[in-house]
Amino acid sequence: MPIRQLTIGGVIDMSHKKKFVGTRFTPSRVKQAFERTMRDKYLVSRMPIEEWERILKDFNYCCAYCGTKESRNSRLIPDHLIPQSRNGDLVSGNCVPACGRCNDSKSKFDENPTKTWEDFVRHKFPEDAEKRILEIKQKIGMTEYKALPPEARLTQRQLAIAVELKEEFQKLYRKLEEYYNS
Fold first, then answer.
1. Strand partners, 13
2. What are the DSSP calls for the chain, one per residue?
3. CATH class of 45-146
């Protein structure tokens, strides 16, 4: 029997659809949410709109990586040169405008902890990578942003709590994986 979906216009055949819309909270997504929540304690994750507007203007309202101009169909979003997963803050010197396509591509690239944003540019745009890298560095003011580890941002008490939370989470995460995979 075909899968059907009721709509205002009637019933439509949905048998060709293999995926459902929505979010499944798999153990790995729960782990990502936990890690992001832990980082939110010490990362700068909000930027004044005036600062973001200045960055957009500096980049001529174009994607820092591919040069796509911002439009109604292609909005630019802040991209961390050093990603949040490596303690990168949302601040000038670590933030550039990116189109959705480049942001998604770079996010996948960022999963490799040995890769940098410069490596991403070299991989994605080999023909003129060095020129693009130099332009980005010039537009961010050549400020050498350094991501600080949690140890440099938190008090000893906060660090102790963070370590305890991570240990407890690891235990719960193993149980969650066991439950999910059984």
1. 4
2. ---EEEETTEEEE-TT--S-SS----HHHHHHHHHHHHHHTTS-----HHHHHHHHHHTTTB-TTT-PBP-SSS--EEEESS-GGGT--SSTTSEEEE-HHHHHHHHHHHTSTT--HHHHHHHH-GGGHHHHHHHHHHHTTT----PPPGGGTS-HHHHHHHHHHHHHHHHHHHHHHHHHH-
3. mainly alpha
Compute the C-alpha angle 148/55/135, nearest 5°: 85
pTM for the model: 0.73
pLDDT tens for the chain, 182 residues long, are: 444 443 344 444 444 445 555 566 788 888 888 888 888 888 888 888 999 999 999 999 999 999 999 988 889 999 999 999 899 998 889 999 999 999 999 988 888 888 999 999 999 999 999 999 999 999 987 567 888 888 888 899 999 999 999 999 999 999 988 988 88
Task: Show me where the domains of the chain are located.
Answer: 45-146, 148-182
